[in-house]
Amino acid sequence: MQYHEVCADQSCDPRHPPLGRTLRRFLPLAGFVGLFLLAATRTDAATVTIGRADLVTFPASGWWFAEEPPSSNNATGEIALDYAAPLGGGSIEMTLDGTGEGRMLFGTVDYNGTRLDQVTSLSYRSVRTSVDTDNSLSIALQVNVDYDGTDGDTNWQGRLVFEPSFTAGSGEVDTGVWYHWNTLASDARWWMTADAIVRGVNVGRACDHNAPCSLATILTHYPDAAIHSSLGALFFKAGAPWSNFSGQIDDFVIGVAGNETTYDYQVCPDGNPDGADIDGDGISDICDAEDAPLSIKKATAWPWRSKKGRAKVEGSTLAPFDASRGFTVRISDGGTMNIMGALAPSDCETTETERDRKIRCRTADKDVQAYFYSDLSSPGDPAKFKIKVSRREFEGPLAPPIEATLEEGFISRFGAIQNCVSSRAKMSCK
């Protein structure tokens, strides 16, 4: 994943992407429809973590998913496991089917009645993972608005919509890029879905879909504007409608009169949502950053000279292995070596007898190869492994330790070996 900052000033507060595992997004909520709330206590100047276990029934205070119109069965929403999300561990995922009728909302009523001139920060991060030929679709931020919160008129007045594609410098929102949207920046673009009503008078629209403007400009025209007190909501929306869309949001920050709250969406705040736990540490494999250690017995790395560099490691680890999920390997040293390789399920061949299981894997170009052996007659014994990654560009000198990370679906194994001897041609550890 890439990361991109979008704002006109220095208020973006750039953050580095996590150094954790590769993107993981799964556990769809089969047949998920309807309206739910994610309960979370709002505290000033704090980070609020919201997990799946916080789901309660509407209209309790908190966060909700909703289809628009309700129960149309064209869209889904969930807190998805996403280690590439800006805050790590999870993100809000919205998916629309191919009917072109899907709309999904994720929002809260906790800020109803808040004056817009009291909103001192309002930002979020988003990514689109589906293909969009126009590079324009992205999850929007919207509020149900009252353009005069002081006149006692509580009729419906439409929505204010922050549109990311109107804000991006090129007008395009690239697939697979995490963007930071500072919606209060001078170049952030909002538009009104309906005419403003001020003291009972229709005063038209200062900023419509064809001429969006900043929130500061909107407040110039409607200084008493607020999130609607009775029909209000602040929410994210996917769909206008759109077809075959998938996208995520994370790291929502809102400040009211300077009191700032960051919302962090996590699958695993409770540690063990599915129970599978290969290393028995009480944290399920789906949430555990290191599910099992790699006991590395031997490792060798050859830096790039006349031919590109290569490295191999071998040792043992907790069984079992499963080639149906594929493998990703990273090998690094204490210096500049940091190489990766991936093996798809189709790169692997598994043979199994009553006594043992053997998995042999290699890519078509033979750059990545692996061998795994499990003794099935002794289920408690560790499995043996050998992994080699070739034709990678990295230069010496190399420095201990050599570290290896092996990922198999959502199972992650890590190990290091310190006892190394370096020469001009290679570094060997055992």
Summed up:
By secondary structure, this protein is mainly β. It has two helices and 31 strands.
Q: Describe it for me?
A:
The protein is mostly beta strands. It has two domains: 2-265, no CATH class; 292-429, no CATH class. The protein is 3% helix and 44% strand. The protein has helices at 164-167, 215-221, and strands spanning 2-6, 35-38, 46-50, 55-57, 63-67, 75-80, 91-96, 102-108, 119-128, 140-146, 159-162, 177-182, 190-192, 196-198, 201-204, 226-227, 234-242, 245-256, 259-265, 292-302, 309-317, 327-332, 338-343, 348-352, 356-362, 368-375, 383-392, 402-408, 411-417, 420-422, 427-429. The strands form four sheets. Strands 20, 21, 22, 23, 24, 25, 26, 27, 28, 29, 30 and 31 form a twelve-stranded mixed sheet that branches. Strands 2, 4, 5, 8, 10, 11, 13, 16 and 17 form a nine-stranded antiparallel sheet that branches. Strands 1, 3, 6, 7, 9, 12, 18 and 19 form an eight-stranded mixed sheet that branches. Strand 20 and strand 21 (309-317) form a beta hairpin. The two termini are 35 Å apart.
